[in-house]
Amino acid sequence: MALRTIQMGMHTEKLAGKTQQRFFSPSEEENFLYPDGYDVDFNKRAEFDAEPLSPGEINLKLRELMSQGYGTIVMHNPGAKHGVAVGLLQRLNLQIKGSLGYFGCGLIDGPRITISGRVGWSCAENMMSGVVVIEKNAGSTFGAAIRGGDLVCKGDVGARVGIDQKGGTIIIGGRAGAFCGFMMQRGRMIILGDAGKNLGDSMYDGTIYVGGKIAELGVDAVEGEMTDLDAEWLERKLKLYGMEAPRGVRNMTKIVAGKQLWNYDNLEPSEKKIVL
Amino acid sequence: MCGIAGLIHRRATGDVGSEMTNMLKALKHRGPDSTGFALYGKPHGEELILRFKVAEQDEMAGSFDMHQAVKDRRHEVDKRLKELGAKILKEEEATEYAFRYRIKYDGDRRKLADFIEDIKGAEILSMGLGLELIKDLGDATVVSDQYKLNGFVGTHAIGHTRMATESDVDIRSAHPYWAYPFADVSVVHNGQLTNYWKGRRGLEHKGHRFVSNCDSELIAVYLADAMEQGADLEDAMKASIDQLDGVFTYIVATADSLGMAKDVMAAKPMVLYESDDFIGLASEEVAIRSIFPHEIDTWDPYEGEVRVWKTEAARA
Prior knowledge:
Chain A has helices spanning about 1-5, 20-25, 55-65, 230-240, 270-275; strands at about 40-50, 70-75, 95, 110-115, 130-135, 150-155, 165-170, 185-190, 205-210, 220-225, 255. Chain A has about 280 residues and is α/β, with parallel strands linked by helices. Chain A has a domain at about 1-30. In chain A, strands 1-2-3-4-5-6-7-8-9-11-10 form an eleven-stranded mixed β-sheet. In chain A, β1, α3 and β2 form a beta-alpha-beta unit. Mean pLDDT of chain A is about 90; it is low at about 10-25. Chain B has a six-stranded antiparallel β-sheet with strand order 7-2-8-1-14-13. In chain B, strands 9-10-11-12-15 form a five-stranded antiparallel β-sheet. Chain B has a four-stranded antiparallel β-sheet with strand order 4-5-3-6, with helices on one face. Chain B is of the alpha+beta class and about 325 residues long. The chains are: A alpha/beta (about 280), B alpha+beta (about 325).
C-alpha cells in the first residue's frame, strides 16, 4: 500500500499531523479523539428541526446531542442558513435534509456529512478529514484550503473550487467554474463535467482530473500522462459515491503543475542571463 | 460587501413590495448603511411616475432653516415642471424631503431631468411608466415602512442593501441607480469597478450626468449610453463584461425585463432560482428562502454570464 501511494506521488515530503498521516499512512489507528471530543455511538440516533434555530443554536444543538452520545444525527430544515455544522472535530454521522448557506461544514475533522440539498459559498473550507457529500449544487470556493478527506458535490459548482487545496479529494459530478485548483498544493480534484477558465492556475502540486472540456488552463498548469494507476484510483474513488465519468475514466484529462514558475527556478539572476 | 436581489413574476403580478422587503431583510448583514428598491408596477397609460428628493436625510437635522429650504426647493420643482409643460396629476409626500409625483409629460425627458436637478439638492431618483425607485438610509424594515412599500403590486423588482466602501453614506450614493435619462431602467451592484474614473470621464464627455461618486452609478450610465446607441439590454450587458473592469455582479431591470451579469472572475456571489412562473436571484440563498421557505433548487451563475428574463407581456 505504501509503495502505491509513493508511486502516485503522494510522498513528496514528510508531513506531520493526524489528518495527513492518516492520508499517507493507511495503517494509522482510526477513531482518534480530540481532547474535548465526545464518545458517540453511531447506533444512537437523534433528529431535530433546525427551522426555528439560529446558526449558533444549531451548532450548539449538535454539540449537545453529541455530548449525549448520539452518533447519528438527522437535521431537518436548515433553510440555507450560514455557518452550520462547523468545527466538528470527531466521528459523527450527520444527515442534513435540506440546503446550507455559506461556510457550511467548515473546519471539520472526521465526521461524515450528507446534505440532500445545495450548499452556498465556501463549503467545507479547511476540512481536515471525514466525508461531505452534497446531492445538488454548490457555490464558489468549494473546498477552499481543504487538507484531507473526501468532499463530493454531485451537481454543478461555482468558481475557485479547491483554491489552495492542501490535501484530500474533491469530486464534482457536474460543471465547475473558473480558477479551480488555483494555487493548489496537494491532493486530488476530479471534475466529471466541464471546467472553467484558468484551471489549476499557479498550482504547486496535486492533480486535477477533468471529464469534460477545459475552457483554458491556468498559468503553469499542464497536461499530464494518464496512467493505469490513475485510472484504477479514479474508478475506485468514484464508485465509493455511486458516480462515474461520462466518457470513462481513461478518457479523462489529467492536469498537473508544470513547475516552471519563478518559485521553482533556483537560478540566480546572473545565471539566468547565461541560460536565457 | 453589499447585498443585491431581484425577482420577477413572469406570468402574473405579486406583492413585490413585501417580497423585496423580505429579501433585503434577509441580506441586512451584508450592509446596513442604506437600502434601496426599484419596484415595477402597472403602467397607467403614458403617465410618468417621478420619484425625487430635494435634500439628504442628514441635512434635515443639520440646519435651522432646512425645513423651509425643502419647501422652497419643492415649490421650485413644481414651478419648473409647469414651465416645461408637465401636468402634475397627483403629488405624494413620501418623506419630508422625498416625493412621488404622477405627471403627464410628452417632452424631452433628459431636458426635464436636467432642469429639475439644476435646483440645489434636487435629484430625480427615477422617472418611468412603471418604475418607482425608493432609497434611503437605514435597513429594509426602516425604509420599507417609511415609504409604505408593503402591498406594492407589480411584476418585478430589484433591491440593494449597502455596505458603503468608497463613497459616502447618503441617499445619493445608495442603490439602485436610475439609468438617466431612460425611463424604467435601474441597476443594483455588488463589487468594485476599478476603471470607474476612466469610464466616467468618457461618458461625461458624451453628455451623460453623474450624481454621485459611487462606482456603481457607472453601470447604470454605461447601459443607458449603450441602449441610446441602439443596443438592446442583453447586448449592452454582454459588452459591459469586457468594458467594465473590476469585480462585480449586477442586476438590471427595465419596464419588462430583469437581467443579471457577473464578471469574468465570478468574484461576487449570486444565487439563482428559476421556475416557469418566478425568477429569484440574490447574493445569498437566504433571501430567496424568505419567499420560498421550502426546499428549492438553486445554483450559482458562472463567470462572465449574462441572463435576461422577460415578463409574459413582453414575451408575447
